[in-house]
Amino acid sequence: MKPIVIEARNIVTRLGENLIHDSISCTIRENEIYALLGGSGSGKSTFLREMIMLETPQSGSIHIFGKDIADLSLTEAQELRKQWGVLFQSGALYSSLTVGENITLLYKEYTDLPPALIHELVKLKIDLVGLPTHAIHLYPSQLSGGMIKRAALARALALDPKLLFLDEPTSGLDPLSSRQFDALIQQLRDLLGLTVVMVTHDLDTIHHTVDRFALLGEKRVIAQGTLKEVLAINHPIVDYFFQKESHGIQG
Ligand SMILES: Nc1ncnc2c1ncn2[C@@H]1O[C@H](COP(=O)(O)OP(=O)(O)OP(=O)(O)O)[C@@H](O)[C@H]1O
Ligand SMILES: [Mg+2]
Predict the structure, then answer these.
(1) Distance, CA 62 to ligand 1 centroid (Å)?
(2) 91 falls in which pLDDT band (50, 70, 90)?
(3) pLDDT, tens digit, for every residue of 56-82?
(4) 200 lines ligand 1 (CB under 6 A)
(5) Max CA distance (Å), the chain
(6) 107, 135, 140, 106: which is closest to 123 by C-alpha?
């Protein structure tokens, strides 16, 4: 078995009065495309935000690359952050900057590379995610939804991370663009040896792109594993997602 990249154990999260996670655990291994699936409000984004150190659970532990993320010095935390890229749900590009400038910003913030080299790297990343070369000069408002996702992905990949976090990468995209984006994620995983963690509602993504996933519900992990393993579990939430919804998709 491949080495473990992320190990979350017994995570308990309270936000205000709300108990969001009541002891959730999951194990994500190198080179996997791993998804967090669950109904709206089941705490998927919150869990993702805890993994990337934007929020802190009340108890439990998260180890990434073997390090307990609750137990890092500032320098260690900064070093660890450089090893992952994040694609937020909205894309979160700066609207006043071009695609090229959006990506450049990251290199300026985290590296001392000379401008000419940064420019070459930006062009490479834009090419890597399948955007046309001229996209470097475009503003986010001039891009389609699919192109915005790709531009945000190019930025997430700027520092050559080994780990990629995606929050609802195909939401808002039409079915064809969604499948193309899924295919891109798989290609990049293979090409760059990435480990990918994504929050998704997209059952096509679960069926065709994801290796394993955790189904969140009732504040817990209802099921975890490959699609086949999860489907073998007898639980109303599993039925809800995979019988009702697949029935709906087939019309
Ligand atoms: N700052 C906060 N204070 C209190 N409650 C919050 C806060 N942020 C989120 N919540 C609540 O936490 C729960 C989980 O939110 P989260 O965004 O993680 O869900 P989600 O599974 O990502 O949902 P969606 O699929 O709609 O994106 C929700 O009930 C939400 O209302
Ligand atoms: Mg969410």
Answers:
(1) 19
(2) low
(3) 999 999 999 999 999 999 999 999 999
(4) no
(5) 57
(6) 135
Residue boundaries of the structural domains of the chain: 4-83+161-249, 91-160
The pTM of this model reads 0.92
200 alpha carbon to ligand 2 midpoint, in Å?
A: 8
* Among protein residues, the one whose CA lies closest to atom 16 of ligand 1: 43
Q: What is the pLDDT of residues 104-138, one digit of tens each?
A: 999 999 899 999 999 999 999 999 999 999 999 99
Integer distance in angstroms from the first to the last C-alpha of the chain? Answer: 39
For residue 52, CA distances in Å to 63, 80, 120, 166, 213 come to 11, 9, 28, 11, 18
Closest CA to 165 of 60, 94, 64: 64
Pocket-testing residue among 11, 12, 15, 51, ligand 1, by greatest number of atoms within 8 A of Cβ: 15
CB atoms within 10 A of CB 95: 9
46 in ligand 1 pocket by Cβ < 6 Å? Answer: yes
Q: What is the pLDDT of residue 233?
A: 94
Percent of the chain with pLDDT over 70: 96
C-alpha span between 160 and 228 (Å, rounded)? 32
Task: Give the ligand whose atoms come closest to the C-alpha of residue 46.
Answer: 1
- For domain 4-83+161-249, give the fold: Rossmann fold (3.40.50)
